[in-house]
């Protein structure tokens, strides 16, 4: 098997995914182009040596539709021979795109490919692409569909986490993100978004609330209590799949769940010859990746089994991993993963995560992989694992090894 | 059967009037006759318009359920052809180019309403007794003659309209004429005597619109606009949805909410509400004729599902048989009741008094002193006042009803009653004493009935001088709301006494079942087996929430542990004590009489633990929660809340035992055991409902199983959104 190397990883800053967010005025194509241009320019790429661009995007409709990856490739003035494909594995789309790009290289069918993702959640709201899962009665009912927030609260209840547990985790995420920004840990990857005149629009993650404390979070009402207990009563749906849970404790809210933001990311992957030809030094090797399906109603338990599957295949143990990045979709997701696999908090999301900085659905997976790589390099550590929970009950994990 | 006439103005009238029946129904004969008449009207060039009406007090009461129950459903294609006939016939006159008016003089239910929905205009008489609706869902079916398609197309399916549509189709609610008008199901309400005049007037008034080209296949270019349904017009959009689109934000939200609501309310036990929602979702995206096919496919899937047949058999035929006193011995004159006596003015006695006076029977309510008797009378007053408050009873009528209750401690007042019902404590000695006191006053033909819930009637009858007149009438609490009465035959009870006791139950409008005598009779044994299996699983470490939720997911309205709370653990204890006292060594815990659960040396241990638990409960004064671990916590603001949130121990969480296939299988197996306990109970209930005292014997012969039967037996009418096992309706 050909080795797949990471040569570079970039991301845009994450803008608040609302009408007053700094990136709301920027089209998703422009966000994706920003990441692709940065990969091209930073590495003085001969783009004709890149075979394909794989971009994750979770709501590929409207201006994110019609294969945004190809549109972005052309708009970023890559060689016209560079094809583009948009993929959707919900929240893990960005990491899945990297894995698919790596698979092309590993199989020998591509010399180099870019994996990444884009999501302008302020312009194309979550759920814009519809889907039978929640809507078609013949699908929603047998699948016991519940909104993800109900799943998160169910997960927390079932595995014994309290409101204090999840809030404390959220406070720590904010603290770590602030410290990382203050110390410049993200500098290597973050490329500012600029307008057509080169004027900077956004250069930092603007969703962070570093002043967050347990007290400020305590004032927030749980977000999914109404959906669960009142009309239409999703808790009663969840109970049918989890009859052992007597009642769901609602505890997730905007402060301990991932932020809605806009952003894009790209990871440049190639074989050894690609690096030599472009005069690039590989930064890390992709050791392996795995995806898995898990129970769809609780939905968010996939990361642990995907990690176990991958570790088993690679003949590794959790202790072989120096650093973990698990997307902070909801605080309970990370708490459960650490509980299940016995991972210490000081190896997990050491520079904060999506609770502080936000979760641009299609791009996050590629973003956290870049964060992981930067931190391995900064600390001189060897092996890192990135993973995400996924809608519909799935998990994806990728292990990289610093060169 | 179907009278067809055409007047000089070219208006045809199709009059439904099925001979030998009080109501019109859709069966093979009437459907064929109606199809002929409809075809004639469409084909006859002289006919300009058609009035559809009925010669009965009601319009059409729906389809003949015998026909549905007896359909051979093995060949799905054949069933589809058979059950799309009505759709095709309705569609033929709906697209026949002539205006049809339904003149709805009374109740139009099920297919009787669908026949009207295919007419272009619907006028109803202001008949207060008329019910308009699609009750198919209550019998596990869906309206299969276009109802699932025409109603949402008529009313719309945005958030606002979806409520109305689901009331009609998914809850199967009967509407009054005015409600139907307000929702848009019918166009006009007129005085009954103006109904046909107005129908003809509408047909004789030319359309203000220009003729239009409908969208149905091979439509002529210009059709009278009055003869084109909204959904057959060019540019038709589903009301309430932006652009008429389901795949609009409003449409998606409606369906996401509706899916959850139906799933939550039915706990996925009933297939019909889900199928109806699918008909709406899939159908509203299709042209009308394709949508009808979708409806037929779902209809056939329900007809082929044992749930619908069980519901029809139980909730319709079984209930009807029971209410018609199918078990009443023949050759005994019907007994009317004008005055009865009730011994014991507690909650049960007072409840029996309430339902008796409400049904026109005078009551002598006796307790050991005047104050106790007055307290019972006050209960009757309180119940009647509730009715007054809700506007269901006038104050003067309330006073008259209350005046029917004589509260006293004097047994001599029993003079002239036709029956005495004893509702004193579950104690043999007390019961024997009051029996003797009452019989001293009673005549030789008067019935003495005991409302005991557990003590065998034959034994109690030993205190009686006339054991042939002694019978068990087991009511359920609260009597005002629980529809079932269990009638227990003692060894010496006469057939005449049974017949006359049944007459009383019918008079107070309850549903009787007749069973033979045994400890716990029928219902207490069923309920006891159910509860004890739940407790046994709890003792074995199955999470409490799992037990109760799994039971509900098996179709039981209440879990066994919650049920135990509701009937009070204290009462179970007293019953167990009395049984042990009576039986000595022969005593076996409820639910193990047939040797179930015995062996492997575990039963002894379970019993010991069970007794310990019950003793601890009593010692702690906590009749409704286990000390320490606790089964239910009534202090948490809600009445029945399990103490331990997830039901999993910390160790289970850590190691995720519940998620491991082995552990999960183990729990499921235990839960199925509860189901296994329920199943014989269900069979027995079914057998008892139809065959009375022979129920136990027939138990093993009953092949078809239906969890719904239990619901009928213990709680009478069930149905979507009305969980009611031993629960008030």
Give a verbal description of the structure:
The complex is a heterodimer of chains A (403) and B (729). Chain A has helices at 28-42, 68-75, 93-106, 132-135, 137-140, 148-158, 163-182, 214-218, 225-229, 234-241, 272-278, 303-314, 331-341, 354-357, 364-379, and strands at residues 5-11, 15-16, 52-56, 83-87, 112-120, 193-194, 200-202, 261-270, 284-293, 323-326, 383-390, 394-402. Chain A is of the alpha+beta class and 403 residues long. Chain A starts with a strand and ends with a strand. Chain B is an alpha/beta fold and 729 residues long. Chain B has three domains: 2-304, 2-enoyl-CoA Hydratase, Chain A, domain 1; 339-516, Rossmann fold (3-Layer(aba) Sandwich); 527-715, N-(1-d-carboxylethyl)-l-norvaline Dehydrogenase, domain 2 (Orthogonal Bundle). In chain B, the strands form three sheets. An eight-stranded mixed β-sheet of chain B has the order 11-10-9-12-13-14-15-16, sandwiched between helices. Chain B has a six-stranded mixed β-sheet with strand order 1-2-3-4-6-8, with helices on both faces. In chain B, strands 5-7 form a two-stranded parallel sheet. In chain B, helix 19 (495-507) links the parallel strand 15 (484-489) and strand 16. At the A-B interface, helix 5 and helix 10 of A face helix 10, helix 11, helix 21 and helix 25 of B.
Span between termini of chain A? 18 Å
Radius of gyration of chain A: 20 Å
Q: What class would the helix/strand composition of chain A place it in?
A: alpha+beta
Q: Judging from the principal axes of the Cα atoms, what is the shape of chain A? A: globular
């Amino acid at each position: 098997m050909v080795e797949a190397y990471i040569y570079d990883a970039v991301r845009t800053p994450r803008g608040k995914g609302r009408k007053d967010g700094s990136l709301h005025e920027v089209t998703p194509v422009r966000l994706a182009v920003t990441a692709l241009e940065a990969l091209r320019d930073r590495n003085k790429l001969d783009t004709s040596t890149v075979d394909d661009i794989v971009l994750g995007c979770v709501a590929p409709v409207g201006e994110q539709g019609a294969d945004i990856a190809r549109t972005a490739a052309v708009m970023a003035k890559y060689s016209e021979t560079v094809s583009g494909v948009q993929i959707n594995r919900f929240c893990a789309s960005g990491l899945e795109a990297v894995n698919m790009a790596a698979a092309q290289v590993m199989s020998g069918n591509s010399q180099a490919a870019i994996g990444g993702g884009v999501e302008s959640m302020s312009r194309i709201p979550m759920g814009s692409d519809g889907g039978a899962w929640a809507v078609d009665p013949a699908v929603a009912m047998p699948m016991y569909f519940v909104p993800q927030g109900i799943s998160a609260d169910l997960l927390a209840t079932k595995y014994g986490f309290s409101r204090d547990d999840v809030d404390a985790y959220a406070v720590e995420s904010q603290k770590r993100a602030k410290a990382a920004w203050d110390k410049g840990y993200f500098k290597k990857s973050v490329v500012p978004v600029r307008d057509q005149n080169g004027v900077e629009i956004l250069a930092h993650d603007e969703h962070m609330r570093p002043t967050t404390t347990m007290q400020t979070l305590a004032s927030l009402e749980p977000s999914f209590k109404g959906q669960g207990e009142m009309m239409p009563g999703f808790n009663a749906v969840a109970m049918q799949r989890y009859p052992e849970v007597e009642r769901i404790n609602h505890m997730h809210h905007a402060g301990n769940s991932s932020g809605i933001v806009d952003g894009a990311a790209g990871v440049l992957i190639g074989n050894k010859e690609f690096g030599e030809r472009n005069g690039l030094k590989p930064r890390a090797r992709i050791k392996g990746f795995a995806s898995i399906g898990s129970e769809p109603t609780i939905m968010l338990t996939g990361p642990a089994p995907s990690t176990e599957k991958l570790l088993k295949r690679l003949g590794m143990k959790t202790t072989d991993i120096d650093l973990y990045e698990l997307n902070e979709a909801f605080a309970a997701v990370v708490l459960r993963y650490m509980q299940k696999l016995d991972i210490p908090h000081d190896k997990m999301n050491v520079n904060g995560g999506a609770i502080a900085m936000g979760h641009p659905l299609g791009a996050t997976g590629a973003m956290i992989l870049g964060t992981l790589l930067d931190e391995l390099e900064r600390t001189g550590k060897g092996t890192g694992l990135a993973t995400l929970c996924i809608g519909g009950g799935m998990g994806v994990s990728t292990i990289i090894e610093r060169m | 059967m179907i009278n067809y006439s055409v007047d000089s103005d070219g208006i045809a009238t199709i009059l439904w009037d099925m001979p030998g029946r009080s109501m019109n129904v859709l069966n093979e004969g009437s459907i064929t006759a109606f199809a002929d008449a409809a075809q004639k009207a469409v084909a006859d060039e002289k006919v300009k318009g058609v009035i559809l009406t009925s010669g009965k007090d009601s319009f059409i009461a729906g389809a003949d359920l015998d026909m549905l129950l007896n359909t051979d459903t093995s060949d799905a294609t054949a069933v589809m052809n058979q059950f799309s006939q009505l759709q095709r016939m309705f569609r033929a006159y709906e697209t026949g180019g002539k205006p049809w008016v339904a003149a709805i003089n009374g109740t139009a239910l099920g297919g009787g309403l669908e026949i009207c929905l295919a007419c272009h205009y619907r006028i109803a008489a202001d008949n207060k007794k008329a019910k308009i609706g699609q009750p198919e869902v209550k019998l596990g079916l869906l309206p299969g003659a276009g109802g699932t398609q025409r109603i949402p197309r008529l009313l719309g399916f945005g958030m606002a309209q979806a409520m109305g549509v689901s009331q009609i189709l998914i809850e199967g609610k009967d509407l009054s004429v005015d409600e139907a008008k307000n929702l848009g199901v019918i166009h006009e309400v007129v005085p009954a005597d103006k109904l046909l005049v107005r129908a003809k007037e509408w047909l004789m008034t030319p359309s203000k619109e220009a003729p239009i080209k409908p969208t149905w296949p091979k439509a002529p270019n210009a059709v009278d606009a009055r003869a084109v349904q909204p959904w057959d017009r060019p540019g038709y959009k589903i009301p309430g949805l932006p652009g008429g689109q389901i795949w609009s934000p409003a449409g998606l939200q409606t369906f996401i909410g509706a899916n959850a609501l139906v799933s939550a309310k039915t706990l996925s036990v009933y297939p019909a509400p889900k199928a109806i929602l699918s008909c709406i979702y899939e159908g509203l995206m299709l042209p009308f004729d394709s949508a009808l096919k979708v409806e037929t496919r779902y209809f056939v899937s329900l007809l082929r599902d044992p749930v619908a047949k069980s519901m029809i058999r139980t909730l319709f035929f079984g209930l009807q048989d029971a209410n018609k006193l199918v078990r009443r011995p023949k050759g005994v004159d019907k007994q009317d009741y004008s005055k009865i006596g009730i011994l014991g003015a507690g909650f049960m006695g007072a409840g029996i008094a309430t339902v008796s006076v409400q049904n026109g029977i005078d009551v002598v309510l006796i307790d050991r002193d005047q104050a106790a008797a007055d307290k019972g009378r006050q209960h009757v007053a309180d119940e009647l006042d509730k009715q007054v408050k809700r506007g269901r009873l006038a104050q003067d009528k309330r006073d008259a009803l209350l005046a029917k209750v004589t509260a006293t401690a004097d047994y001599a007042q029993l003079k002239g009653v036709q029956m005495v019902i004893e509702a004193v404590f579950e104690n043999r000695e007390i019961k024997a004493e009051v029996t003797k006191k009452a019989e001293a006053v009673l005549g030789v033909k008067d019935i003495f009935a005991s409302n005991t819930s557990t003590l065998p009637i034959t034994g109690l009858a030993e205190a009686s001088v006339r054991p042939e007149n002694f019978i068990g009438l087991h009511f359920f609490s609260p009597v005002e709301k629980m529809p079932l009465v269990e009638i227990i035959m003692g060894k010496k009870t006469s057939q005449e006494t049974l017949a006359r006791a049944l007459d009383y139950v019918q008079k107070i409008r309850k549903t009787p079942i007749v069973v033979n005598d045994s400890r716990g009779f029928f219902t207490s044994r069923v309920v006891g087996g159910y509860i004890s299996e739940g407790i046994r699983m709890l003792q074995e470490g199955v999470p409490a929430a799992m037990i109760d939720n799994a039971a509900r997911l098996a179709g039981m309205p209440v879990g066994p542990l919650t049920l135990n709370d509701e009937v009070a653990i204290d009462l179970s204890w007293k019953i167990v004590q009395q049984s042990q006292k009576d039986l000595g060594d022969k005593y076996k815990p409820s639910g193990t009489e047939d040797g179930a659960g015995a062996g492997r040396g575990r039963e002894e241990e379970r019993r010991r633990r069970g007794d310990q638990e019950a003793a601890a409960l009593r010692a702690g004064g906590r009749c409704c929660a286990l000390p320490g671990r606790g089964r239910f916590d009534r202090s948490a603001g809600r009445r029945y809340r399990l103490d331990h949130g997830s039901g999993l121990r910390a160790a289970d969480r850590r190691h995720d035992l519940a998620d491991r296939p082995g552990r999960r299988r183990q729990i499921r197996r235990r839960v199925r055991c509860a189901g296994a306990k329920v199943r014989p109970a269900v069979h027995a209930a079914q057998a008892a409902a139809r065959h009375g005292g022979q129920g136990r014997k027939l138990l093993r012969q009953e092949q078809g199983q239906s969890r719904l039967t239990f619901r009928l037996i213990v709680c009478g009418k069930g149905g979507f959104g009305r969980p009611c096992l031993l629960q008030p309706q």
